[in-house]
Amino acid sequence: MKAKPRVHLKLAVELVPAPLWNRTLAQLARAPSGRTIWTKIREVELKRTGKVCEVCGQRASHVHEKWDYDDERLIQRLRGFEVLCQECHLVHHQGFAGVHGLTNLAMKRFAEVNSVAPAMAKSIVKEAFDVWGARSVRGPWTQNFEWLVANAGKYDLGADLVEEAVRFPEEPEGADEGSELWGVPTIGSVRADILGDLGIRTIEQLASSDPGSLLAASSAARIRDASFPSQMPMAVNYARAISQRKPIVTTHPRQLSKLDESRILFVDLEYDPEEAFIFIIGAMTMDGKMQQHFVEKSADLPRFLLPFLDRVRDNDLQCVSYGSTSADVPMLRRAIQNVGMSRSRVDDLPFLDLFRDVIFTQNLRKQWLYLPLKPMDAKSVARYFGYDPPKNVTIRDGFEALMQFKGYLRSRSRATRGRLLRYNASDLKLTRRVFEELRNLETGRGDTQTYRLA
Ligand SMILES: [Zn+2]
Predict the structure, then answer these.
(1) Which residues surround ligand 1, an ion (CB under 5 A)?
(2) pLDDT tens readout for residues 167-215
(3) Span 261-450: which CATH code?
(4) What is the Å distance from ligand 1's center to 44 Cα?
(5) 59 Cα–ligand 1 center, Å
(6) Cα–Cα distance measured from residue 244 to residue 247, given in angstroms and rounded to the nearest whole number
(7) How far is it, in rounded angstroms, from Cα 416 to Cα 394?
């Protein structure tokens, strides 16, 4: 699903997937702790080019964040900045351009700076939107700011200040080359290098090392990685899980087994990220009672959404999902604002996100489970726990579901509607299976023999 331009582009179209909106560096740094960060980066970057656009040479005032996407592991990785003028910047923000009637301007600019014919420009931009659509319905995404932590000095920033502001610690990147330590969650190339300097180059070596000694050695070596102390014990546990090929559970207060089963509601939404339109609201109780709303047009959404929100509130239900922090919840917020309702109704929803709250918290105090697994998206984790979708589920992912829904709007085919509902139902059952297996692991009843490593 990589966007492979057929021509060399001076200025590409870089659309940020919807689940990652509001999580740019500029926005994260708006928090009091990080306010100076963005100011300093802007200052240094604008000075670097003499306030000149790096693409066309015009006067420039925009600092654009450049990101890489690992579509396999669902990681968005910062890889630097680019100074751009207003017009060139618009090319990266085709969505914004569209809303503000500037599509033609953005398209013209794109064709000009890249010296491509208008028809070619149109097809490349369309391709960028396809990639964007596919990425926007996948998740959960994690972010990697390792580049900035490593380059903090260049911006006259302390690495610890940067870590504090982004608070999304690093993730492994492509493990095809380089250290095998990149295969360990929480370790990227910077930490792999640090560990390499301490004589640790393999997962085996990391698994058998003592976090305390590693910390002592790293502080003796004056390592500038502020979150190393909190991340390293987690990295060692992940390495142990991978090397023993089974989950590691540490002592912790009960999290899943304390929940009242009768109040659990598994929730999964299918949506169109571009329109912030939710077309299936799927919910299922622990005993498998399913309620699915198929929404055909935006105006119908309140009629289905309000009873759902009321049901959760009136029955004091606990919503359980996979990856909702970065997908379903922000989408609900946008959708609800689109229909003129207050987003507070969504903010009040009690969501337990099995990914962010259990499987990959990136927080040493919260993390009690270490799976010997990567990537850790819903399908990989469910497959590991032995869940296979029923044979009659033919849609493979959210993007395919979106395409089928668009087809449905033209055809109103009952068969398509049925396929979409079956796909959503399978995702709900998948979420329940993951929940049950996580709870079994918590209470020591997990049958690890049945787990399937790829
Ligand atoms: Zn420019």
Answers:
(1) 53, 55-56, 58, 85, 88
(2) 644 333 333 445 788 778 878 767 787 888 888 999 999 999 998 888 8
(3) 3.30.420.10
(4) 18
(5) 8
(6) 8
(7) 11
